[in-house]
Recover the amino acids of this structure.
């Protein structure tokens, strides 16, 4: 265990209250007014790409988030995801080693203060759900402040599904863990429902308190609930709609309001029409082109904000990222298990058997994706259609891409496995000359080529030899 950080114990109350942005804070992250499939942040078009620890950075007192943010920033990442503390995990759950959502005994902090009464399930005193913990809110504000210094957006998940009794037994909302007698419920699925007014009241008060504490930050958006689609889906959806409304109501008097996300499904699901108050639609373990294509009509930001359960190899998650963003997505956030409370620089070596991957090399590769997108005026681009590119018969190779008329085209080819070979295809272009710039997605090496005096129509193109995946930027020069 790390030594106790005494900062919060010795700072006076007036200084604690001063942590955060100034009164004249800029407008927060928003949808881009010209193309709301993307974001606008600090007056710049923005796509969010991240590689995030397992969401316990605020609630785990042993986690040095400054060191963590430094690693994200140097890797070119600009988003992190964190949980509020209403949900916490026991050590060893899901097979995660060094799980930041499972703090050591006495190192868990959440919105509510500890009471004088002993008996919390994971050590220490029970919680008093009528009293806020000022140390927690100082840490939360400081977390968002440090992220903002590095232009990193914070996705704050207010709630999470309770998957089974393992997590529910250690939640502060469980009556065994608080002195208020609230949460005397056996079925954890009922916690995220409208069936228990006393629990709903505590949840609503927490949302309003957090909204008030973070109202001045520009580098923030709220996700109402992580994976709310397990269990009683009807009750969960009603509850999620209600809590989305609570966030909106909590911010109704604010000069600037934060974006609200709903976590829609694992893999894919159609959202027929936009949900009230919701601007970001996040999926887990997304099926990239299908997930984006089936929800592109929403005309709002689509995200793949959790990955995993598909091995530990970098290529799996690198290709998921490129496929999602080049299909028209606005956000990709890898769940990176190489960050632990002893390895906030992401140096923990993940072994087979864990539910996902994460390495410094992968973060570097995601940074290449971020840089590639920065080189494009993607706000003026849209996903390619089936009439633009014709692949030769090359096994599992697929292509995703974005196009701005045919002035600029961005293409991504993947599925080449571990065989080093080239890809041949035809592309339908108007008459003119074009610069072709191939980018190695693993090391950012570039290979330039030209297509000169094209008469218009289908042009044959062959890539350099590559392994697994490669990207291409085509720019019309006359």
């Amino acid at each position: 265990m790390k030594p106790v950080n005494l900062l919060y114990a010795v700072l006076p109350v007036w200084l604690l209250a001063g942590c955060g942005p100034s009164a004249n804070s800029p407008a927060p992250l928003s949808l881009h007014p010209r193309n709301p499939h993307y974001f606008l942040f600090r007056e710049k078009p923005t796509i969010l790409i991240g590689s995030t620890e397992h969401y316990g950075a605020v609630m785990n007192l042993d986690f040095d988030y400054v060191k963590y943010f430094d690693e994200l920033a140097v890797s070119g990442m600009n988003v992190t995801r964190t949980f509020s503390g209403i949900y916490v995990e026991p050590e060893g759950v899901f097979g995660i080693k060094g799980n930041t959502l499972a703090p050591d005994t006495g190192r868990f902090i959440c919105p509510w203060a500890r009471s004088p009464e002993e008996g919390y399930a994971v050590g220490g005193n029970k919680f008093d759900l009528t009293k806020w913990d000022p140390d927690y809110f100082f840490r939360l504000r400081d977390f968002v402040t440090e992220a903002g210094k590095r232009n990193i957006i914070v996705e704050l998940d207010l709630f999470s599904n309770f998957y089974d009794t393992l997590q529910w037994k250690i939640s502060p909302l469980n009556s065994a863990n608080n002195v208020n007698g609230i949460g005397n419920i056996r079925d954890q699925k009922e916690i995220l429902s409208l069936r228990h007014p006393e629990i709903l009241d505590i949840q609503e008060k927490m949302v309003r308190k957090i909204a008030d504490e973070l109202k001045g930050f520009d580098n923030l958006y709220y996700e109402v609930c992580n994976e709310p689609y397990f269990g009683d889906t009807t009750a969960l959806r009603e509850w999620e709609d209600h809590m989305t409304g609570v966030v909106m109501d909590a911010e109704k008097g604010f000069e600037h309001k934060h974006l609200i996300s709903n976590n829609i499904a694992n893999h894919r699901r159609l959202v027929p029409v936009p949900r009230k108050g919701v601007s970001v639609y996040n999926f887990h373990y997304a099926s990239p082109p299908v997930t984006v294509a089936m929800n592109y009509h929403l005309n709002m930001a689509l995200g793949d904000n959790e990955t995993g359960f598909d091995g530990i190899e970098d290529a799996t998650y690198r290709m998921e990222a490129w496929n999602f963003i080049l299909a028209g997505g606005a956000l990709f956030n890898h769940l990176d298990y190489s960050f632990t409370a002893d390895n906030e620089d992401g140096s923990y070596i993940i072994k087979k058997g864990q539910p996902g991957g994460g390495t410094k090399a992968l973060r570097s590769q995601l940074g290449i994706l971020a840089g590639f997108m920065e080189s494009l005026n993607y706000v003026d681009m849209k996903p390619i259609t089936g009439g633009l590119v014709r692949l030769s018969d090359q096994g599992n190779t697929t292509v995703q891409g974005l196009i701005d008329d045919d002035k600029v085209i961005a293409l991504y080819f993947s599925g080449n496995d571990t065989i080093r070979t080239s890809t041949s295809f035809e592309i339908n272009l108007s008459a003119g000359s074009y610069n072709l710039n191939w980018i190695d997605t693993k090391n950012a090496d570039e290979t330039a080529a030209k297509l000169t005096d094209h008469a218009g129509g289908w042009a044959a193109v062959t890539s350099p030899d590559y392994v697994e995946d490669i990207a291409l930027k085509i720019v019309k020069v006359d």
Notes: The two ends are 63 Å apart (CA to CA). Residues 1-18 have pLDDT under 50 and may be disordered. The first strand starts at residue 30 and ends at 31. The chain has two domains: 7-380, 384-476.
